Automatic annotation (TrEMBL):
<dbReference type="InterPro" id="IPR023214">
    <property type="entry name" value="HAD_sf"/>
</dbReference>
<dbReference type="InterPro" id="IPR006122">
    <property type="entry name" value="HMA_Cu_ion-bd"/>
</dbReference>
<dbReference type="InterPro" id="IPR044492">
    <property type="entry name" value="P_typ_ATPase_HD_dom"/>
</dbReference>
<dbReference type="InterPro" id="IPR018303">
    <property type="entry name" value="ATPase_P-typ_P_site"/>
</dbReference>
<keyword id="KW-0677">Repeat</keyword>
<feature type="transmembrane region" description="Helical">
    <location>
        <begin position="334"/>
        <end position="352"/>
    </location>
</feature>
<dbReference type="GO" id="GO:0140581">
    <property type="term" value="F:P-type monovalent copper transporter activity"/>
</dbReference>
<dbReference type="InterPro" id="IPR001757">
    <property type="entry name" value="P_typ_ATPase"/>
</dbReference>
<feature type="transmembrane region" description="Helical">
    <location>
        <begin position="918"/>
        <end position="938"/>
    </location>
</feature>
<dbReference type="Pfam" id="PF00122">
    <property type="entry name" value="E1-E2_ATPase"/>
</dbReference>
<dbReference type="GO" id="GO:0016020">
    <property type="term" value="C:membrane"/>
</dbReference>
<keyword id="KW-0186">Copper</keyword>
<keyword id="KW-1133">Transmembrane helix</keyword>
<dbReference type="GO" id="GO:0016887">
    <property type="term" value="F:ATP hydrolysis activity"/>
</dbReference>
<feature type="domain" description="HMA">
    <location>
        <begin position="47"/>
        <end position="113"/>
    </location>
</feature>
<feature type="domain" description="HMA">
    <location>
        <begin position="126"/>
        <end position="192"/>
    </location>
</feature>
<dbReference type="GO" id="GO:0005507">
    <property type="term" value="F:copper ion binding"/>
</dbReference>
């Protein structure tokens, strides 16, 4: 790019547009002191920026701007176009930034504005995903998020409490994954890199026969020399090699071949035995840890509970426990002290650690509340015990059972919560299990015949391999059929219940099941490029992304814990002062305690009953389950933003071709206006249209093949001087005849007379929802073609159901008004916009939004992409183009319209669940805190002991997760299940 730009600066205006020829200046100090130009050019990354410069009147002004910019350090080149009022600058971002360049131009006396979207192709954003262990509530995730966002070069960071993962968008020129991991570690949480976002696969190989470190180094060097190898990690103690590589360049079989040839047969390599997935392994370990801690806690807590609340009512045992050891210190108090200490400081150590990490970074989380509550109970009890031992007359009450039981119940709650949270991501686990473990690899001879076949680990498959899929087996990787025919069940990927017929040339998806017949498949995509991997990544990203409604919980979490601590202290102080100044009858005080102890219990109960976890889990758990359920239904929802917007949709804009219609046009009628053989007529227009990529052109060529049934791959006459006129048709010379194929405007523009009967014929064709194509030979109208794109079988029912849901339907198409109106009338759409260009579709969407509608755009083509991006929710039909799918917020994998309703209905159900979660979480706190503070005590005598408050707090988080899990029972609207959809057969 730099070379091209330097050339541009030396060429005159007429050769390179309006870039002005500029005077040359003496060399300027472009680079910082100590850095040579050569070093900067070779080692430093470059960026390009385009700036609008207002106020230049001649080339001298342009020269002034260029001179000012070139004085800056790190400028590679600058070109100023005073005619178009633009400056283009190539610079090194390590030394200077865009804003500094803009300000420098303004200092030179001109108005400068950065032109968005015109930055360098080099400038990219990398995305990495990181697992974070140790987060307990929204406050923890907010702390990590803030730490990541504070790093220079980080554009966006999202931390999901429910998945315990972070997704970070960053500029790789300014920071790297190592710095991101370090920042998370500094906040006190464990960070593990999941993916770097680059198009790279990873594989682990086990190498047998390696006896020395030198042998391992030789293997490493041999692998490093291979093209496409990105990185190598050696684990000598396990005889394991971990490689990251580009799957489109190399693959694991190449690695094994290199390893085994390196040692002249001494070394043997194989795929490292696969254990559980890292995510699942961590989840299971976390479940085991909480279960183990809870059981240990229970071993100590049960005796404490018995000595303080049960044995005191058994005379013989009570006498033994009340026996004094020193002064007023009893055996029971010593026993409870000894038993509660391990629970408080060893089993409950994780809460101390969590509190320290949070407070160190100026935030407060659930751990802080637990530690304050349990420490208050424990250390007051220690004070009480020590005073009993030193005073002959003091008789106090200890609360050792409060701190121990509190920790036990919270550990039980965390155990149940982790157990339930594991079930929210079952959709991803099921998707990952679709890939088969083995595949049959074929070796083909020179004539395409099979000369050898062997069963290999499916992870050894490489691009361009040929694999054999027998009936009942899973397709091991994405590819296309090169031999055989069968039906493939794709329901596990697309949700389509009916098996899809496959024959030579048809694409297949990895993870789908071959129903009958043997297929030979040429592999096109492996590893991270495969459709299954991309779906898994999309669902994982969707579960990470925060819904806007979650900002509500994030705002609350910032002041929730400090507010609870304040309320707890206020509660204790109010009850203590009321007791001290006899503000309530002494009969209210239980016999086993005094007014201070009663106030302390109320304060601790308030502190531990408040639950920030339930609020933090309300949205992400529902979004996780909702997106997972959507994936299983063939509806891929790209995150919480799309999910939230979809439930508000009250207007759906449909494209016509490929959306409301099947998208496979066919010729249904031909009318010749001149005497000639139909075969010759179609030979002329097929020879012309074969050069066009338009769907109608392909339909004409496909139909023309019928007249050459004796040829498997018909060869058409050569067309000369081919011209494609966008929106009108095509022109060419075939057999020295001038052929034009297109619409009425093409003929009119070329002065070809269209008779009245042909006009009427076109009107009739459009009235039947067909497209009329005119053909002229040597400037004489010769024939009329009628092309039909059949309606999707469910289109009418879907539009009708949307009306019943109070959702308005509109059709926007680039087709003519006659065809558009006929299609709209057939499906029941009232509002139609026809002959619309791509930008006009987007403008219509924006106009609807300005009118107060929340708009969903449903399309499948490249021309729909602007409208898909402009809409509140873009829905791409799964069989559409990659660009449309990339631009959309929701991908309908099954390529049918019913899923538009499924997507809207699922989002509504998910958000009603989120609202229910918030009502539960907020209602629990609003109701629980006053009760814990003793609001009912004066009138009913009811008070909430701290350990019961702790159990209630733990139960609230579990109940929110379970409430979200109920979404797994989601079923599509009954009206969809009852739809009678007639199949359509298209004859070519």
């Amino acid at each position: 790019m730099a070379t091209k730009f330097l050339a541009l600066s030396c060429i005159r205006d007429k050769s390179y547009g309006n870039w002005s020829a500029r005077p040359r200046y003496p060399s300027m100090p472009k680079y910082p002191k100590g850095v040579t130009a050569e070093e900067t050019t070779q080692k430093q990354p470059e960026d390009r920026v385009l700036i609008s410069v207002i106020g230049m009147s001649c080339s001298a002004c342009a020269g002034s701007v260029e001179k000012a910019v070139k004085r800056l350090p790190g400028i590679r080149e600058a070109a100023v176009d005073f005619l178009n009022n633009r400056a283009q600058v190539i610079f090194h971002p390590n030394f200077v930034n865009e804003e500094t360049i803009r300000e420098t131009i303004e200092d030179a006396g001109f108005e400068a504005t950065l032109i968005p979207g015109e930055t360098s192709d080099n400038k990219s954003t990398q995305v990495c995903r990181i697992r974070i262990n140790g987060m307990t509530c929204t406050s923890c995730s907010s702390t990590v998020e803030q730490a990541l966002q504070a790093i220079e070069g980080v554009n966006a960071a999202q931390v999901a409490l429910a998945t315990e993962e972070a997704e970070v968008h960053f500029d790789p020129k300014m920071t790297n994954c190592g710095q991101l991991l370090g920042a998370i570690d500094d906040t006190g949480f464990e960070a593990i890199l999941i993916s770097t976002g680059e198009d790279i696969d990873k594989i682990q190989l086990k190498v047998d026969g390696v006896r020395t470190d030198n042998s391992m180094r030789i293997i490493e060097n041999s692998l490093q020399a291979l093209p496409g190898v990105h990185g190598i990690d050696i684990h000598p103690e396990l005889s394991k090699i971990s490689l990251s590589y580009k799957p489109d360049v190399t693959g694991p079989r190449n690695f094994i071949k290199v390893i085994e040839s390196t040692g002249t047969g001494r070394f043997k390599a194989m795929i490292f035995p696969q254990g559980e997935g890292e995510r699942e392994s961590h989840r299971r370990e976390e479940i085991k840890q909480y279960r183990r801690l809870f059981l240990w806690s229970l071993m100590f807590t049960i005796p404490i509970f018995l000595t303080s609340m049960v044995f005191m009512y058994i005379p013989g045992i009570k006498y033994g426990l009340d026996k004094k050891v020193v002064n007023m210190l009893s055996v029971g108090e010593i026993l409870r002290w000894v038993l509660s200490t391990p629970v408080q400081f060893f089993i409950g150590r994780r809460f101390y650690s969590g509190s320290y990490k949070a407070l160190r970074h100026g935030s407060a989380n659930m751990d802080v509340l637990i530690m304050l509550g349990t420490n208050g109970a424990y250390f007051y009890s220690v004070y009480s015990v020590l005073r009993s031992a030193t005073s002959p007359g003091f008789k106090g009450t200890d609360f050792f059972e409060t701190s121990s039981m509190l920790i036990s119940f919270i550990l039980l709650g965390k155990y149940l919560e982790v157990l339930a949270k594991g079930k929210t991501s079952e959709a991803i686990a099921k998707l990952m299990e679709l890939a088969p473990e083995t595949a049959i690899l074929l070796t083909l001879g020179g004539e395409g015949n099979v000369v050898h076949e062997e069963e290999i680990d499916s992870r050894l498959i490489q691009k361009d391999d040929v694999i054999k899929v027998i009936p009942g087996a899973k397709v091991a990787s994405d590819g296309f059929v090169i031999w055989g025919q069968s039906h493939v069940n794709e329901s596990m990927i697309t949700g389509e219940s009916r098996p899809v017929a496959k024959r030579k040339g048809d694409a297949v998806i990895g993870g789908t099941v071959n129903e009958n017949g043997v297929l030979h498949i040429r592999v096109t995509r492996v590893g991270s490029e495969s459709a299954l991997s991309q779906i898994v990544r999309l669902v994982e990203s969707a579960q990470l992304a925060k819904a806007p409604v979650q900002k509500f919980a994030d705002r609350i979490s910032k002041f929730f814990v400090p507010l609870v601590i304040s309320l707890s202290f206020s509660t204790w102080l109010a009850w203590f002062l009321a007791g001290h100044f006899h503000g309530y009858p002494e009969s209210w005080i239980p016999k086993s305690m005094d007014s201070f102890q009663l106030a302390l219990q109320f304060g601790i109960s308030v502190m531990v009953i408040a639950c920030p976890c339930a609020l933090g889990l309300a949205t992400p758990t529902a979004v996780m389950v909702g997106t997972g359920v959507g994936a299983s239904q063939g509806v891929l929802i790209k995150g919480g933003q799309a999910l939230e917007s979809a439930h508000k949709v009250n207007c759906v804009v449909f494209d016509k071709t490929g959306t409301l219609t099947i998208g496979k046009p066919v010729v249904v009628n031909t009318r010749l206006l001149k005497t000639m053989a139909l075969r010759d007529f179609y030979e002329l227009i097929a020879a012309t249209e074969v050069n066009s990529e338009h769907p109608l052109a392909k339909a004409i060529v496909e139909y023309a093949k019928k007249f050459k049934e004796d040829e498997e791959n018909p060869v058409w006459p050569k067309a000369r001087d081919f011209i494609s006129i966008t929106g009108h048709g095509v022109k060419a010379m075939v057999h020295c005849k001038k052929i034009m194929v297109g619409n009425k405007s093409l003929m009119t523009d070329n002065n070809i007379v269209i008779p009245i009967d042909v006009e009427e014929m076109l009107a009739d064709i459009e009235g039947m929802a067909q497209t009329g194509i005119l053909v002229s030979v040597d400037d004489e109208l010769t024939g009329v073609l009628a092309i039909s794109d059949p309606m999707k079988p469910s289109a009418y029912e879907v539009i009708s159901l949307l009306k019943s849901m109070n959702v308005r339907s509109i059709m926007v198409t680039g087709d003519n008004w006659g065809t558009a109106n006929s299609i709209a009338k057939e499906v029941g759409i009232d509002t139609v916009i026809a002959e619309a260009r791509p930008e006009q579709k987007a403008e219509k969407v924006k106009a609807l939004q300005a009118s107060g509608y929340v708009v969903a755009m449903v399309g499948d083509g490249i021309n729909d992409s602007p409208a898909l991006v402009a809409a509140d929710v873009g829905m791409a039909i799964g069989a559409g183009t990659d660009i449309a799918i990339e631009a959309a917020d929701i991908v309908l994998m099954k390529n049918n319209l019913e899923d538009v309703i499924t997507a809207i209905d699922l989002s509504r159900k998910t958000f009603s669940r989120i609202r229910l979660n918030y009502i539960w979480a907020l209602g629990y706190n609003l109701l629980g805190i006053p009760i814990a503070a003793g609001a009912l005590f004066p009138s009913t005598g009811f008070r909430l002991p701290p350990w019961i408050a702790g159990a209630a707090m733990a139960a609230s988080s579990v109940s929110v997760v379970l409430c979200s899990l109920l979404l797994k029972n989601y079923r599509r609207p009954k009206k969809l299940e009852n739809l009678q959809i007639r199949g359509i057969t298209i004859q070519n």
